[in-house]
Amino acid sequence: MLETATTRAGMIRFIRDICGLHSQIRCKPKRWDQWEWSIYCSFDDSYDFLLIRDIDMISWIINKEELAKLFLTRAIECDGHLCIWPDNCHNKFRFSIGFTNSDQKLLEFVRKLMEKYYHKNSYIETKKTPARSRVKCVFCDINRDQLRFVEELPWKHPEKIWKLELAVELCGERITEEGVEQIKEVRQKIFQLRQKTIKLAETFAKRPKGKRMISIDELINLLGI
């Protein structure tokens, strides 16, 4: 059984697209700091070999290009970000990717993959989570020339894809009001979907016990993503 929780509609869709062919996926509302969806993926025992208990177990994939690219993509989709923003100091749009995790060995492994494929140094910052614990984030700025590699990675997470599409159009270009508005529209779209996800969790939590769990396909249909 694989379990996670999220308030992100894009993550719900991502989990369905990645795991849906291999497991039964059910969703149930729960309350943490706010309402969110617990997601349960039921795999049979034949998938146990995929469990990674230590990153050293898969360090060999760094020399297997297709596997390394796939690992990097899924790591960013699960625990990372793509960010496109206007850099007013240089009057151009900039783009970066990042990965956040409390596991130092995993963080360093993802950092190696970033530096291998983007041919530039990354940097690490420490930040506080909503639960007030500290995690480390590795960031890498991506220029126009490196963007093609990012674009060709096997992305599945819809929110990451929306941001990447913006980056392909805007990265390295001069700042325009139209470009700034495009970024705002995508951010607003993601925010509205998140609010809808939270509201649905709160609504389903009011159902009688035994009727709060739904399939991931039903949840995706309700979210319209």
Q: How is the biggest beta sheet arranged? A: 4 strands, antiparallel
> Structural class given helices, strands, pairing?
alpha+beta
Choose one word for the global shape: globular
Helix and strand sequence = EHEEHEEHEEHHHEH
State the low-pLDDT regions, or none. none
Strand order across the largest sheet: 1-3-2-8
Number of domains: 1
Number of strands: 8
Can you describe this structure?
By secondary structure, the protein is α+β, with helices and mostly antiparallel strands. It has one domain: Endonuclease I-creI (Roll), CATH 3.10.28.10. 43% of the residues lie in helices and 25% in strands. The protein contains 7 helices and 8 strands, in the order βαββαββαββαααβα. A 4-stranded antiparallel beta sheet has the order 1-3-2-8. Helix 1 packs antiparallel against helix 7. It is globular.
Any descriptors?
alpha+beta, Endonuclease I-creI, 4-stranded antiparallel β-sheet, 8 strands
List the SSEs and their pairings:
Elements: E1 2-6, H1 9-19, E2 24-31, E3 35-42, H2 65-79, E4 80-87, E5 92-101, H3 104-118, E6 123-128, E7 134-142, H4 147-151, H5 158-170, H6 177-205, E8 214-215, H7 216-223
Antiparallel strand pairs: 1-3, 2-3, 2-8, 4-5, 5-7, 6-7
Helix pairs in contact: 1-7, 5-6
